[in-house]
């Protein structure tokens, strides 16, 4: 059990393994389920015109590096993906995109989990047998896994569900924020830890003390959002997943509509001075 990573050789992989590889200079990791036969099922976002920001950048990067191509020498059907679905089947080579192969760890003791430097490499949750993970991954390849969201429904969330069958309860997901992904929790945890540790400046013994307090808050934040610790998760059969994903899609559409309604008055207000100026000129 490594504290920095869980690098493995291809010969060590077994069907149902949750694997990942680091991208963009260890900025983030891309996750998938090894289904045997040198094939991986993983989740990304379809390429969309006009995308911007962290969400789009990570998703597009994963898409370009992992979707495979018509000329893949290893697997004729590499890059198989149904329309309107972010779940894709590729060979191991295309999934890795030149990166190293790592295996995600399950059932990690709390002490070892807290000692991990990076989030998104392990969980305290217990994994189901490998054949269950393969069955879920292949089912989702045919039926999809909803809309990609870098914080709430990403490639790590996909792999975690395939391995455990656990999903956030609707009430928890409605609040937005972080899904099951340890990587997303870590990304949000750094600034949050710095903010929450600010009151301890008076008692921290200089910069080193402050750094220790911040690190402690960061690790604690990762732990309480871990899928193996949270109490707002439920086991969902893969055949019943469509109902849950349909609810998430409806919530996303409602959120988008609300955002548009909030932006409309602001846009109208910004045009008001221009309208008054024209009336004055007349």
Quick gist of this model?
45% of the residues lie in helices and 12% in strands. It is built from nine helices and seven strands; from the N terminus they run βββαβαβαααβαααβα. The strands form two sheets. The protein has a five-stranded antiparallel sheet. A two-stranded antiparallel sheet has the order 6-7.
Describe the structure in your own words.
This protein is α+β, with helices and mostly antiparallel strands. The protein has one domain (10-257). The chain contains 9 helices and 7 strands. The strands form 2 sheets. A 5-stranded antiparallel sheet has the order 4-3-2-1-5. A two-stranded antiparallel sheet has the order 6-7. A hairpin with a 4-residue loop joins β1 (18-23) and β2. α4 crosses α5 and α7 runs antiparallel to α8 (206-224). It starts with 17 loop residues before the first strand and ends with a helix.
The main pleated sheet reads as:
5 strands, antiparallel
Note the beta-strand portion. 5-15%
Query: What Rg, in angstroms, do the CA atoms define?
Result: 21 Å
- Give average pLDDT, whole number: 76
The portion of residues assigned to helices is 40-55%
Widest sheet: strand ordering:
4-3-2-1-5
Number of helices: 9
How many individual domains? Answer: 1
| Structural class by secondary-structure content | alpha+beta
Regions with little confidence, pLDDT below 50 for 5+ residues: 48-57, 187-203
Question: How many strand segments?
Answer: 7
């Amino acid at each position: 059990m490594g504290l920095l990573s869980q690098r493995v050789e291809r010969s060590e992989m077994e069907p149902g393994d949750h694997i990942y590889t680091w991208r963009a200079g260890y900025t983030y990791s891309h996750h998938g389920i090894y289904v045997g036969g040198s094939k991986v099922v993983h989740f990304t976002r379809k390429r969309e015109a006009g995308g911007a920001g962290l969400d789009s950048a990570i998703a597009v990067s994963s898409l370009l590096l992992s979707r495979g191509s018509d000329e893949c020498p290893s697997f004729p059907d590499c890059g198989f993906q149904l329309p309107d679905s972010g779940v894709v089947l590729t060979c191991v080579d295309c999934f890795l995109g030149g990166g190293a192969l790592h295996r995600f760890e399950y059932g990690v003791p709390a002490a070892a989990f807290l000692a991990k430097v990076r989030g998104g490499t392990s969980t305290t949750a217990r994994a189901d047998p490998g054949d269950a993970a393969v069955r879920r991954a292949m089912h989702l390849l045919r039926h999809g896994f909803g809309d990609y969201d870098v914080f709430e429904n990403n490639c790590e969330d996909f792999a975690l569900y395939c391995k455990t069958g656990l999903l956030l309860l609707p009430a928890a997901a409605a609040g937005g924020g972080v899904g099951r992904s340890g990587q997303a929790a870590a990304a949000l945890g750094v600034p949050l830890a710095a903010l929450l540790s600010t009151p301890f400046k008076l008692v921290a013994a200089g910069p080193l003390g402050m750094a220790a307090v911040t690190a402690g808050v960061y690790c604690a934040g990762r732990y309480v959002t871990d899928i193996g610790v949270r109490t707002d998760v439920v086991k969902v059969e893969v055949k019943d997943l469509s109902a849950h994903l349909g609810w998430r899609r409806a919530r996303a559409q409602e959120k988008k509509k609300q955002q548009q309604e909030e932006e409309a008055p602001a846009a109208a207000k910004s045009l008001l001075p221009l309208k008054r100026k024209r009336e004055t000129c007349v």
